[in-house]
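Appendix C: a fully annotated inverse folding record. The material below is reproduced so that readers can follow the format used throughout the book. The structure is listed first as tokens, followed by the designed sequence.
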């Protein structure tokens, strides 16, 4: 796989999260580094993403989870830096009662089509975003969508390990 950047949500995706497992197993994956994983600030996260993309030898694929999906939408509206697409896993609904108040900076993402190809992967029982929300965001962002079944928030608590189905989706997406 070509260059890819891991974009965790709040907390930075712990050791049992598929993003961390993928990053450990695949040297072509690297993580962007905002100043604080637990107190996200949109400007800081956008700058960290810009640095990570700019450091790539070729346009990377973005592999975003949860809050980082909203980051991608905000960042692409601010930056003209090229990427090879974005895999957006578990897009949260900022209008949901479950949306963390410390992430309020991210709450109003652009709703116009993203300027690059994207694939939303959604769980049918995600406590942070319904399938209707995922379908709505896919329509607004011009994203393809895959409903992955009942996987919760598709995070470490989902006990997916290295999430082979997700890896297959990423490999297929990155090959296009």
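Designed amino acids, in order:
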């Amino acid at each position: 796989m070509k260059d890819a950047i891991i974009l965790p949500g709040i907390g930075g995706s712990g050791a049992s999260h598929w993003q961390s497992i993928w990053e450990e197993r695949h040297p072509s994956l690297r993580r962007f580094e905002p100043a604080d994983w637990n107190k996200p600030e949109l400007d800081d996260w956008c700058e960290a993403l810009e640095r990570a993309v700019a450091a790539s030898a070729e346009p990377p694929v973005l592999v975003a989870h949860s809050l980082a999906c909203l980051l991608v939408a905000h960042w692409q509206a601010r930056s003209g830096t090229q990427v090879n697409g974005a895999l957006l896993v578990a897009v949260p609904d900022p209008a949901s009662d479950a949306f963390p108040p410390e992430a309020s900076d991210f709450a109003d993402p652009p709703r116009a089509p993203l300027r690059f190809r994207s694939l939303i992967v959604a769980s049918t029982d995600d406590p942070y975003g319904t399938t209707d929300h995922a379908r709505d965001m896919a329509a607004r962002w011009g994203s393809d969508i895959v409903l992955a079944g009942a996987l919760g928030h598709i995070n470490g608590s989902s006990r997916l390990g290295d999430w082979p189905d997700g890896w297959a989706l990423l490999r297929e997406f990155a090959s296009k």
